[in-house]
TrEMBL record:
Signal peptide: 1-22
Keywords per UniProt: Signal
Name listed for the protein in its UniProt record: Lipoprotein
């Protein structure tokens, strides 16, 4: 009898720990074509660790889709900028790490000698908004800043 009372309490005690884990992804849809995209996937294995495993998925369906592990991140925070670097070529910058992704054949590599300046136009940023991982397009209209005197 006593064991039947303890099991539900253990489940309730463990439940908040499971919800603290981060497991999510977001996609940069290229030219409005859902079959061609670059996704950032984040997986936190243990709730007590701030390390988050990260991967980039490069996809051009039905031709190819590949997943590449990248440097781990920190739970709760993420910022990865995406730049247009050529035809079907994208530069991704997270902190000091730079990567190149090609959607033509779903290729990916770490950029060992990153550029001093961004290689092209910023298309958007993977970041957390409203407690969710999202891709925020750089084309979104910016709100004008008005001087305090007006």
């Amino acid at each position: 009898m006593r064991l039947t009372f303890i099991k539900p309490l253990l489940v309730l005690a463990v439940l908040p720990m499971l919800t603290a884990c981060e497991y999510e992804g977001a996609a940069f849809i290229i030219n409005g074509n859902k079959d061609e995209n670059i996704s950032l996937v984040r997986e936190q294995t243990w709730f007590w660790s701030s390390d988050v495993n990260q991967a980039i998925v490069v996809s051009r369906m039905p031709t190819c889709m590949r997943r590449y592990d990248i440097k781990s991140g920190v739970a709760g925070t993420v910022k990865m900028e995406v730049y247009e670097a050529g035809s079907s070529l994208w530069a991704l910058k997270q902190g000091k790490s730079w990567y190149l992704a090609s959607t033509e054949k779903c290729e990916f590599q770490r950029w060992t000698e990153p550029p001093e300046e961004p290689p092209g136009r910023l298309v958007g940023t993977f970041s957390r908004k409203n407690d969710r991982l999202e891709f925020l397009s750089a084309d979104s209209p910016a709100k004008p800043i008005r001087p305090a005197d007006e």
